[in-house]
Specification:
Radius of gyration: 42 Å
Strand content: under 5%
Oligomer: single chain
Number of strands: 0
Shape: rod-shaped
Distance between the termini: 149 Å
Mean pLDDT: 80
Number of domains: 2
Number of helices: 7
Largest sheet: none
Order of helices and strands: HHHHHHH
Length: 206
Amino acid sequence: MEKQKRERSSNFSQEETNLLVSLIEAKKHVIENKKSDATTWQEKEKAWKDIEKTFNSASGAVFRDYKHLKIKYEAMKRDTRKRSAIIRAERFKTGGGTNTAPSLTTEQEKLKSMILFSVEGSESQFDSDLVLPSKPKEKRPFDKLTEKKLEIAKIQKKVITEELEHKLIQRKILEKELEHKDMIHELEKQYLILKIKLLKKELGET
């Protein structure tokens, strides 16, 4: 019992690490799938069990169950992220000159590629020049419909604006007409007052 526990907790050899990375790389489309539905979970579990079977058949050393292999994989990814961050910081410090930080191992380069694969389309944790190029997004029918609605809304806004301007002009014209009528009315009033005065004067003289 003690021997079994000691073997399960023993460190991975370099050969085991290389083998594990290669097996995971072959199934990265399943392992690094970010969906969380039941079907995807079942596919991932099956992929890990397949990796466990192939790994132990090829290794022939200490038996590693798939849970232990997953833990090792996550640990390797964490180490790769840390090493990449150190290299990036050193590159920034030297202004792109000689980098004194230890470079990534072959396995870490593969892991980095898998991590980048898993975050394709989102902000990368690594250098921006290493992000996989994103494909130009094709416009979906919904997007085209939204654009058409926006164009119609712009045209409607323009029509409403022109209608308001036209109404303002009509209002100014009406105001001018009212002012003109008031002036005529005032002149007619003054004319009648003067005429009445003249009549009174003529009648008084008579």
